[in-house]
Backbone:
């Protein structure tokens, strides 16, 4: 990662005999290098040296990669702060700024403070989840790109209009634009609490309403799932692995982040309920709850057969299924949809919608949808009941309702 004043890279095994990942900062014009431990350890077989990334097949790779990305962003923020504050460009100053050892290096509350630096610092100090933080890191970069010299003194309604115009030039999806407005308002609300922004300025900024489009959930019909099941691919080829990962999502309703991190420890045998997936899924982590899926009973045991098949084929893997990058998954899923003669542009999230809609259709039980889907909102669960009702309505159209002359 090339910075204006330094080159930053991730190095594995700086201390011989360890799996520790360290961050190396090489300052331009200064021969001395500095290494900082990231706190993340990765075995050699799971470290992709060329990409400086963790192999997705490693257990908890998504969480650990997010930790590395957050660490690199902290380094980037410290280097940028040194540049803006015109500090000496040397390793000692960097370490002071990075570790905040010197009170003078802490940003002082000032209405003249740069907005994007405040947002970066606020994000760094927050205790939100790793995936949410990673998403908001991109938002901070957008704010910096929008206006790198914008201070709190200059924020008002005109700023909101300019920000909205900037987002429309970059994105076409209205919900994406609305989300970026929401993130910036969150940072500005934090600034109000720290007396960097007046309430009047904040309300003026909020006067611009970003519209959000409420879409309908899309799911595959049972016949389309069957068409994907019937595809003939070479066993354990990439196409076969991606197809089976998608089908397991259709059978269980797990999100892609939960599918790719499903480990052998998540498969448990409960005598009274059979074999279960017992997993702390993404949306329930903040509630310290797990979802329990009886894969021996769902879809006549098809998900259990897939689990047994992959655990037997890849006994040394930490994850149940072979894990690929998001780019590979999307590429091969398009091919699978084409082979199954599915014309709509499906994504992996279709699998979750498909499971929950079929579950709603078969059980007609709102609480079953919430329990097996790990859903905490009644309104969200009712959406799947509504989709199942639409399927029933569509089925009624194909029935011959003509009555005979004699009853």
Residues:
């Amino acid at each position: 990662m090339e910075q204006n004043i330094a080159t930053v890279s991730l190095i594995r095994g700086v201390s011989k005999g360890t799996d520790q990942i360290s961050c190396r900062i090489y300052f331009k014009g200064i021969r001395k290098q500095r290494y900082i431990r990231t706190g993340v350890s990765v075995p050699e077989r799971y470290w992709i040296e060329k990409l400086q990334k963790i192999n997705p097949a490693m257990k908890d790779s998504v969480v650990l990669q997010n930790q590395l990305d957050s660490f690199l962003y902290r380094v980037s923020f410290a280097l940028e702060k040194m540049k803006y504050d015109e500090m000496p460009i040397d390793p000692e100053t960097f370490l002071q700024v990075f570790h905040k050892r010197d009170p003078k290096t802490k940003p002082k509350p000032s209405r003249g403070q740069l907005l994007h630096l405040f947002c970066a610092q606020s994000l760094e100090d927050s205790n939100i989840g790793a995936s949410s933080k990673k998403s908001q890191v991109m938002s901070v970069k957008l704010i910096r790109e929008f206006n790198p010299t914008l201070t709190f003194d200059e924020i008002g309604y005109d700023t909101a209009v300019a920000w909205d115009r900037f987002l429309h030039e970059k994105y076409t999806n209205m919900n994406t634009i609305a989300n970026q407005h929401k993130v910036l308002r969150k940072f500005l609300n934090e600034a109000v609490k720290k007396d960097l922004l007046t309430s009047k300025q904040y309300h003026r900024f909020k006067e611009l309403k970003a519209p959000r489009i409420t879409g309908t959930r899309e799911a595959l019909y049972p016949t389309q799932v069957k068409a994907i099941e019937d595809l003939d691919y070479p066993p354990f080829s990439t196409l076969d692995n991606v197809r089976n990962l998608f089908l397991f999502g259709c059978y269980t309703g797990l999100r892609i982040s939960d599918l790719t991190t499903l480990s052998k420890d998540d498969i448990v045998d409960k005598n009274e309920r059979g074999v279960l997936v017992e997993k702390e899924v993404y949306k329930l982590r903040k509630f310290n709850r797990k979802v329990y899926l009886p894969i021996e009973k769902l879809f006549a045991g098809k998900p259990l057969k897939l689990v047994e098949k992959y655990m037997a084929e890849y006994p040394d893997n930490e994850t149940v299924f072979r894990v690929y990058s998001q780019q590979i998954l999307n590429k091969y899923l398009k091919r699978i949809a084409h082979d199954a003669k599915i014309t709509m542009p499906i994504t992996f999230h279709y699998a979750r919608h498909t499971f929950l809609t079929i579950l709603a259709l078969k059980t007609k039980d709102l609480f079953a949808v919430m329990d097996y889907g790990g859903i905490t909102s009644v309104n969200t669960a009712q959406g799947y009941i509504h989709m199942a009702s639409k399927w029933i309505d569509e089925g009624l159209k194909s029935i011959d309702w003509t009555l005979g002359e004699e009853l």
